[in-house]
Amino acid sequence: MVATEPSGGDAVVVRDLRVRRGGTAVFEGLEVAIPRGRITGLLGPSGCGKTTLMRAIVGVQKIDGGSVTVLGEPAGSAALRRRVAYDTQAASVYGDLTVRQNLAYFARLIGAPRGDVDRVIDQVGLRPQAGQTVASLSGGQENRVSLAVAMLGSPELIVLDEPTVGLDPVLRAELWALFRSLAAGGATLLVSSHVMDEAIRCDRLLLMRAGRLVADTTPAALLADTGESDPDAAFLALIERDAAA
Questions:
Q1: By the 8 A CB rule, do 179 and 189 touch?
Q2: 77 and 179 share a domain?
């Protein structure tokens, strides 16, 4: 179940990727391509390799073999520093600074335009909290500050590690609307999750299990291929099929 893309339409190309962590093989020859200008969901249970793959894409994961090409450059290249953003699952901001101070600091680091701080504050819905310290925010609000940092400078590729964890359904819907607007503006988004009902919000799906790519598909094709109407049931059907192969 592989969805094809036009030649030259990929933001990320992973070839024969091999990664070991602590003597354990995470990937043994992984092959993945991520199309430009779309939302690709990276889904699967905890421990399946999602975070390791994202770290390899942004160039902070030591690899043992293979190649990862991002926007035409080797992953981690200096040329990608302002073109690629990574929002980790753990918030990476300063608790003793306000929301605005955090964003102003990171904006200076990457040379983002002066108006970017206000733009991203509004996009993530934190205008009322802009003057509060991050330490005084809720966990969900803190995660939104990290997301805002990732959006500074309008990067071409935004890698988000479970950005909706711990958020209520209303806020999750608002963030997915934001992701959709970013993709409509030309950005490529890679969004990891272990919540299968978020799969239907993506353009493309990469479903992983135990360091392997179980399927490279679309939401409609996933449901049609398994004959299921529920994303969780569809994923379980793929797992069962994979285990029986």
A1: yes
A2: yes
